[in-house]
Design brief:
The chain contains 4 helices and 3 strands, in the order H-H-H-E-E-E-H. It has 151 residues and is α+β, with helices and mostly antiparallel strands.
Length: 151
């Protein structure tokens, strides 16, 4: 979008905001299975002119089925972590055979979903500092959740 010559005079930040707003509108319309009249009313409230609303609705109608299929493939609920496993990996040499002696952790999160589809485990590698940062953020999240449930 940023390379389009017709849009070169528009500030890139404004263009990105417009793109995000349009994507959000399309996503919400698909999620709500909104009909054309509901979409038109919403866009009229946003002060879009009639010609643009008609063009938007026409394009939305053309791609509605594909959008619903795409949204259906995403699933309805987030994955749940059921287990975590880890191992310490110690890199002794790099590709150029220089000694490095860099420890890192290989972490695997076992996940499941309430949807029927199976999901592969999530694996990543991190340094000691990155793992400590992750653990700290998880502790902060747990404390925030605990405070929220006590209110």
């Amino acid at each position: 979008i940023l390379d389009d010559p017709d849009l070169k005079d528009i500030d890139p930040i404004v263009l990105k905001h417009c793109h995000a707003a349009a994507a959000t509108c399309i996503l919400e319309a698909g999620k709500q299975k909104a009909d054309i009249s509901a979409i038109s009313t919403c866009l009229e409230d946003c002060k879009l002119d009639k010609e643009r609303i008609e063009q938007f609705c026409t394009e939305y109608q053309k791609n509605k089925d594909a959008l619903e299929i795409l949204l259906g493939s995403i699933g309805r609920s987030p994955l749940h972590i059921t287990d975590v496993s880890w191992r310490l990996e110690y890199q002794i040499k790099n590709n150029q055979l220089h000694k490095t002696y860099q420890p890192s952790y290989l972490v695997t999160l076992n996940v499941e979903s309430s949807d029927s589809g199976s999901h592969p485990d999530v694996s990543f590698s991190c340094t000691m500092e990155q793992l400590q940062d992750l653990v700290g953020k998880l502790k902060d999240a747990a404390k925030s959740l605990e405070r929220a449930t006590q209110m």
